[in-house]
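Escalation from tier 1.

The customer reports that the assembly of two entities below gives different structure tokens on two consecutive runs. Tier 1 could not reproduce it. I'm attaching the input and our single run for tier 2 to review.
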Amino acid sequence: GQQVMQIPQYQHVQEGEDFTTYCNSSTTLSNIQWYKQRPGGHPVFLIQLVKSGEVKKQKRLTFQFGEAKKNSSLHITATQTTDVGTYFCAGRDSNYQLIWGAGTKLIIKP
Amino acid sequence: GAGVSQSPRYKVAKRGQDVALRCDPISGHVSLFWYQQALGQGPEFLTYFQNEAQLDKSGLPSDRFFAERPEGSVSTLKIQRTQQEDSAVYLCASSFGFLGANVLTFGAGSRLTVL
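Tier 1 run:
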């Protein structure tokens, strides 16, 4: 079946370092959404990308949607402790189902 | 309401017991989804309602799982004869639009532990 692969599973960074997570779909997506889940919390919507090659920024977060609408990335510049959590991508397929990635856990080294 | 409300937040059940998990979506939201999230994993789709109609139940893992939304608002996920592998957080999410539109607002989840 259709899958969205998300890597890495974990990323340990020092506070102030950058963080990136990548999602790749086996098929073309109509759009892709990103969610953040804090430890012990529930997923919270961050952004939706719809157009081929789209780039959107939210303060230190940069989201990209690939030209072929099969891949996406989230980049955080100069991580802060408030960024800790798991970041999920969720791609919408041709049947309008949301296919979720397994998430990338951002861990700030003490 | 202001957000998606789920109850109970925590449920401990003995193996073989039946459980019922409630979701109260945002008022006026047409679409309602149930997801299962195991520890350290992403949400796994269980079922989808558009108003009171259950349009997709392909993610329900067995016939022990049953969901309903009789009046198109509150939904209940029922698990019969619970097994240890049913232990997970059950997330409910709603959205204003139909299946292909809008984004999901999640509730805080119901954490089920089956002993």
